[in-house]
Predict the structure of Apoplastic invertase.
Amino acid sequence: MELFMKSSSLWGLEIYLFCLFIVLSNINGVFASHNIFLDLQSSSPISVKNVHRTGFHFQPPKHWINDPNAPMYYNGVYHLFYQYNPKGSVWGNIVWAHSVSKDLINWIHLEPAIYPSKKFDKYGAWSGSATILPNNKPVILYTGVVDSHDSQVQNYAIPANLSDPFLRKWIKPNNNPLIVPDNSINKTKFRDPTTAWMGQDGLWRIVIGSMRKHRGMALLYRSRDFIKWAKAQHPLHSSPHTGNWECPDFFPVSLKNTNGLDASYRGKNVKYVLKNSLDVNRFEYYTIGMYDTKKDRYIPDNNSIDGSKGLRLDYGNFYASKSFYDPMKNRRIVWGWTNESDVLPDDEIKKGWAGIQAIPRKVWLDPSGKQLIQWPIEELETLRKQKIQLNKKKLSKGEMFEVKGISASQADIEVSFSFSSLNKAEQFDPKWADLYAQDVCAIKGSTIQGGLGPFGLVTLASKNLEEYTPVFFQVFKAQKNYKVLMCSDARRSTMRQNEAMYKPSFAGYVDVDLVDMKKLSLRSLIDNSVVESFGAGGKTCITSRVYPTLAIHNNAHLFVFNNGSETITIETLNAWSMDVPKMH
């Protein structure tokens, strides 16, 4: 029996609508900069609709949010600053909102820290970063917009009162801006300064995202006193045909263990990560390489590729991420923004909110040295409630069963799959070599019977499977090895008729050796309108935003399925209902 069968005509319609959306999106600038709806920027909601609001992901009580600006840990308190519209649910009127927490789970919302108010940020206070100076004084660097043409400069802000444990008020000194672009820089593509690091010469360094013609650039600046900054003769790194680099992040990772490192760490046994958010397609890419401190240049490893064919932090709806070093638990944590996929501004106005922050993730270098590993912070486990457990259950071709006993709309699921042989893996079509994983997932999908897979979870499903979002694996035999495709497919996630809704078949490949260890693991965090998934212990991460009309709250269902001819064994399955953290 095939699972969730659909006719070829429906398949063709979905592909048509998807392609139509991509065309319209590029015309309207969805994948370039934020859409600007001047007439809606200050349209405050009459009431906030909770149908698709998340339970345990970070979001303010109402209105629009985007980039997590400057997460930091200071004197026992975690701070999250983020882009926020205090007047409406579309992008505009942006301020630096500010929330604090003792555990990264339960948050207190404070007054915004930075408003556009002076000539150096009159037209916008955009993203930036925080740095803790050696005298234990935090400082924020942020991008200010100085005119209606989006000309950008770099400013700083400091706490008004260091004795305030929450650092509620921030001052923008009058000697701003600190950095003004010279004539060689595109003034409208000059933003998002990184956390600063100090070199062996005692000079501070930061990177600012930019673009020259088609070349993405991580511009390098140096300073001795954090006030007077000079541009280096060459960028830290650049790459052709990658477009504008937004929200750059540059940090060291240990070759020895999973511990995090401060940005200024100068010891041995490290590699470096340069992450950029590509404005051209709204995805996050990173490379791993070495940092030549004498030449102040970053050199990616030979197998680490810049641009759209490179590694992603997340192969789904995840953008503008920012990481920080947490000295309390000796780890590096990355935050990312996941925006709405229902697209039309009227949807955001009616809901009264738009955007969430993904679950904060601990990030470290895989033992292979070739990629990063990401995993939800351990504090998230404090929200786990009712638990069910399952062991050694076999799934033959066409089988699926429902996971009962937990809240399927707000859950944390960890499952380990095994299989006895790789012989039934289908051949990887050479024509797919030039396609993105997302395109291959659209061709294969969860409904087409295969050899070794597809198998995995069916999340946010209605009782009769009119709606569902499958998260699954499929194994293919390539010329020299096996390729593991991981998908989070939103194409059947909602019955809602909205041609503009973005319902992609997000996917990425998982770099695992299945010859000796014929196992794959999956963890999915399900939270009403988001499915955040981690394959193979965090090697591949995919975040999907979905908007079911039937599979909501108590009417949502969770299934495990196998649609391949190779029998799959569920070695272990642990699933929990998730509680709602405290938000004040």
In short: Confidence is low (pLDDT under 50) at residues 1-32. Residues 65-376 form a domain with the Tachylectin-2; Chain A fold (CATH 2.115.10.20). The chain has two domains: 65-376, 385-578. Residues 407 and 577 are 5 Å apart (CA to CA).
